[in-house]
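Q: What would this chain look like folded?
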Amino acid sequence: MNISDMRREKARLFSPALLSLDVTDPEFATIIARFAFGEVTQFGELETRERVIIALSAVIATNGREAFRMVLRGALKAGMKEEEIKELIYQATAYVGLSQILYFLSETNKELDRCGHDFAHTKRTTVKEEERGEKGEEIQIEIFGEGMKDFSKQGREDRRHINRWLSENCFGDYYTRSGLSLKDREMITFILLLSLGCTPKQLKSHIQGNLNLGRTRKDLIAAASECVPYVGYPKVLNALDAIDELTL
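A: My prediction, written as structure tokens:
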């Protein structure tokens, strides 16, 4: 897909007209369309699916409720599967919290219902209850290396439970699920942390995790740049500085 086609495709998916901005705030809609669907699209070599994943992750992390409606409809028009969208939202729970996620999950279910989606549930859990810690640690080792072995047993005793929860819940409950690849999940986490903007240590860890899974500096810069329309310049600039620290 060439740049012109990509620009038209992104504009079709994420048009501000979905929020009636072309009527109520036409000048604002023009600025956003020119920048987000023009200049940003001209940078990098991201596929449409990647742009959708990045946009969904960014608006969830920033609690962008109106933007989420626009991006969700675009994701469905782009052919993103229900299980991919749901898995992205499930995983985001570990990073933005239940109080924020309930809204996005509810809105997604309403939109799927409006589209006539069949809610017959396919179980995507792949581990047994008693295996959550073990399998979660295996994922941690795959992403971050052998230094994560016995992670849940490390650290001060009075806060070691958080390490155990990270292995069992964050990685054991979410990263082990089907519906998204591990590489997708680690990119989602990078975008969530970038968009939250207050987690420099964790952001660097997951930049390294993406590099360990085969992403390149070029990939990460393109993904971060895609976030500018959704989260603003300061958070993206901080993420780019973190990428520089780990790749230059």
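The two ends are 31 Å apart (CA to CA).
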